[in-house]
From TrEMBL:
Residues 50-194 form the AAA+ ATPase domain. The keyword Magnesium does not apply. Keywords: Kinase, Transferase. This is LAO/AO transport system kinase. NCBIfam families: lao (TIGR00750), PRK09435.1 (NF006958). GO terms for molecular function: GTP binding; GTPase activity; kinase activity. GO terms for cellular component: cytoplasm. SUPFAM superfamilies: P-loop containing nucleoside triphosphate hydrolases (SSF52540). Belongs to the SIMIBI class G3E GTPase family. ArgK/MeaB subfamily. The lineage of its organism: Bacteria, Pseudomonadati, Pseudomonadota, Alphaproteobacteria, Rhodobacterales.
Length: 328
């Protein structure tokens, strides 16, 4: 795709064209060198229209897709435009993304004001991060008011999603006993809003107890600088009956507005952008270093001299960088 074509595609995305949107995301997801170039032209041509970016995580079975479908129907019903992006770094390995299953949100998929994108199938978290960030830019240019970035509860992907969203929501299931059902403390500490799903029927009383347990645990977590008292917050919802959904959404809006007033919303976004810039610079540098033909041999030689103790690791690194031309 030529630059002019990429720019025209960007224009159609900005005009709200859904097919152009799908093509544009496919383009930014591609790793082919010529596609990357076209993707850069596309991204540069897109208008900047930031949406409210909400991260959502929870272990499989907790009700993420049911929740997104129910919340999404509510938001699109209110006239909001919604994009759902999935991050599933494991999908490459398991072959077939669990988050890629379109039947999961069948009703929402049919809404004109909703766009659902399954996870790109790539194992490397770094690649997924870049593509998801670029996809966020694309859906925002399309006019999304809300971008939901969904991930399964596996290790590093939450951290990644926290680093690209404004508000992070953790969905949990009603617990049987008094244990906090093994939700990793690290993940709990990242959450702004903790929602106990399935608070309906036989599970309702259990859900309320679980919520109270988590609310207690959250009180021991230091609030984010600038956040009002009472955050992070724990609430009950039911994706099945819709109970608590409006309240959960109102809470998300309330926190976003409080952060906007406090100024932390913008500083948080700026810090995120700076961190991603550093990250892109570092990965770009390493990729260029690795791609340099003369440097590869020197690197191997330096590495073996480090292994034998002939060179210190620092001296070996300097040797390679100086030869590469990185000495100023
Ligand atoms: P995901 O794997 O996190 O996306 O979870 P799903 O949305 O696929 O839901 C897993 C199971 O939990 C399904 O059988 C749903 O019908 C059920 N489920 C989801 N939300 C609710 C809820 O609010 N109440 C009840 N009772 N069941 C739910």
């Amino acid at each position: 795709m030529r630059e002019a074509e990429a720019k025209a595609l960007g224009q159609r995305v900005a005009d709200g064209d859904r097919r152009a949107l799908a093509r544009a995301i496919t383009l930014v997801e591609s790793t082919r060198a010529d596609h990357r170039e076209a993707a850069r032209a596309l991204l540069a041509a897109l208008p900047v229209r930031p949406a409210l970016r909400v991260g959502l995580t929870g272990t499989p079975g907790v009700g993420k897709s049911s929740f997104i479908e129910a919340l999404g129907m509510m938001l699109t019903g209110d006239g909001l435009r919604l994009a759902v992006l999935a991050v599933d770094p494991s999908s490459g390995r398991s072959g077939g993304s669990i988050l890629g299953d379109k039947t999961r949100m069948s009703e929402l998929t049919r809404q004109r004001n909703a766009y659902i994108r399954p996870s790109p199938s790539q194992t490397a978290l770094g690649g997924v991060a870049r593509r998801t960030r670029e996809a966020i830019r694309v859906v925002e240019a399309w006019g999304a008011d809300v971008v939901l970035v969904e991930t399964v509860g596996v290790g590093q992907s939450e951290t990644m999603v926290v680093e690209m969203t404004d508000i992070f929501v953790l969905l949990i299931a009603p617990a049987g006993g008094d244990e906090l059902q093994g939700v990793k403390r690290g993940i709990m500490e990242m959450a702004d809003l903790l929602l106990v799903n399935k608070a309906d029927g036989d599970l309702e009383a259990q859900a309320r107890r679980t919520r109270a347990d988590y609310a207690g645990a959250l009180r021991l977590i230091r609030p984010r600088p600038g956040d009002p008292a009472g955050w992070p917050r724990a609430m009950c919802v039911s994706a099945a009956t819709g109970a608590g959904l409006a309240e959960a959404w109102a809470s998300i809006r309330e926190l976003a507005e409080a952060r906007q007033t406090a100024g932390t919303f913008e500083t948080h976004r700026r810090a995120q952008a700076e961190a991603w810039f550093r990250h892109a610079l570092e990965t770009g540098l390493l990729a260029r270093l690795a791609a340099h033909p003369g440097i590869a041999a020197l690197r191997r030689e330096a590495a073996s001299r480090v292994a034998t103790g002939e060179l210190t690791p620092e001296a070996a690194a300097d040797l390679v960088l100086d030869a590469w031309g990185g000495n100023g």
